[in-house]
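During the no-cost extension, the postdoctoral fellow (Dr. R.K.) reprocessed legacy sequence entries with the updated structure-token encoder. One reprocessed record is reproduced below for audit purposes.
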Amino acid sequence: MAERVDLPLEYEHVEPRAATEGRAPAVFVLHGRGADERDLLPVAERLPEELHVVSLRAPDRLMGGYTWYELDLSGGGLESSQPHVGEFERSLDLVSESVAAAIEGYDLDPERVGLLGFSQGAITSLSLLLAAPEQYAWVVALHGYLADSHADRDPAGIAGTPVFVGAGSADQVIPADRAAAAAERLRELGCAVEAGTYGSAHGIGPDELADVVAFVEARLD
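Re-encoded structure tokens follow.
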């Protein structure tokens, strides 16, 4: 077992269950608002066994969990919310710093680093991709949207990046059309987008999870 590495954010680390030649690939997992670094571990456990899993905890407390940022509701309510820009940028920086520190500390393969986020974690993951596409080999964004602060960016090197966008037809927190708009913008930028809308509310059902697992498996083949 590898010695635990200090990162800017608290986290859970799950070592690969299968050996790989050379440096191992990794997925960085970002939970949703009010959850914590353990929330998505059951999802991560379904992913390919050769992955390091680094599940990060958001920096700010919220009730019994944590949040990546407060919500800007000036656009008309929860269904049209946006991240509070200052807190959002701070979280993006903390995640980027944590990814870099984990790559070095756990000797991960920097060419095979993926992001998997749900809700606020999905919004954060998509913005990280747009801010530094060269750092991420693939992204899974579930029940999120593309933040206004990053939606108009057109970064070099993003074309061809595989992105999975999942949504729920019964999701009243982040409506499916917001995820669909994110998928369409990513296609405009040249990303290799796979998107699905599932008969779920604000959560990851078995059909969506099965598609996520297949998507990640294909990235590692």
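The chain has one domain: 12-220. The longest helix spans residues 85-105. The remaining legacy entries will be reprocessed before the final report is submitted.
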